[in-house]
């Protein structure tokens, strides 16, 4: 028995957690067993790593940052995600290896293939069945975050051109793997986005 692995990607403020919560609720209501996770921070170890990665004061070298995300990912996949998929559950997760390619690859300007390969090594090659990309401009993302709080984490605090590189990288990843990705406009109404995701998930379950 194998379950499904669905990931949500997109810039900061694109509404991933809202949409992944709605999909979790919708699938659970239909009788599916859903495990929700996030990166960084889907496990107890991950919560500690998340604190270091996002809130530690001072400089973290880009390669160290990439390895910290990969360490969080390795533990999350080995102890939480892979066991759930093997039980036949549906795993819904906020962010996965595409975030590393976009943020550490395009954002920090590390080699995208090397960054992806580190994650593939960390996860023994696990790729999602479906990746939902919520596309949003850096400017819109910043406005949305600013509307809810005034403290930014290390990545959110990066300039708009960093976040534009991240956005373009996500779009290029989606274009390269159209079978795995669905790209949705994050400025559409929440219900419109949720309905589009449900349609795609129904097709996947069928
Ligand atoms: P979020 O959980 O609020 O989306 O915050 C996670 C932040 O970490 C976000 O700015 C994206 C960033 N990130 C990376 O840079 N690389 C990664 O591999 C992951 C998973 C997240």
From TrEMBL:
One of the GO BP terms on file: dTDP biosynthetic process
One GO CC annotation: cytosol
Coiled coil: 138-165
Keywords: ATP-binding, Coiled coil, Kinase, Nucleotide biosynthesis, Nucleotide-binding, Transferase
SUPFAM superfamilies tied to this protein: P-loop containing nucleoside triphosphate hydrolases
Family: Belongs to the thymidylate kinase family.
Listed name of the protein: Thymidylate kinase
Source organism: Conyzicola lurida
């Amino acid at each position: 028995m194998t379950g499904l692995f669905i990931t949500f990607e997109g810039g900061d403020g694109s509404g991933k957690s809202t949409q992944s919560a709605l999909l979790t609720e919708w699938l659970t209501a239909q009788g599916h067993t859903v495990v929700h996770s996030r990166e960084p921070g889907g496990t107890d170890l991950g919560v500690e790593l998340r604190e270091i990665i996002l809130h530690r004061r001072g400089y973290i070298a880009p390669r160290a940052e990439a390895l910290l995300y990969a360490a969080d990912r390795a533990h999350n996949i080995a102890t939480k995600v892979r066991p759930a998929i093997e039980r036949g559950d549906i795993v819904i997760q906020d962010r996965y290896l595409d975030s590393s390619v976009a943020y550490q690859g395009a954002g920090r300007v590390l080699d995208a293939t090397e960054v992806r390969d580190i994650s593939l090594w960390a996860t023994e090659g696990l790729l999602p069945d479906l990746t939902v990309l919520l596309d949003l401009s850096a400017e819109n993302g910043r406005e949305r975050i600013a509307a809810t709080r005034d403290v930014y984490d290390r990545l959110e605090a990066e300039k708009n051109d960093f976040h534009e590189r991240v956005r373009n990288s996500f779009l290029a990843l989606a274009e390269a793997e159209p079978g795995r990705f669905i790209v949705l406009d994050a400025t559409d109404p929440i219900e419109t986005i949720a309905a589009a995701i449900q349609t795609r998930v129904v097709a996947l379950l069928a």
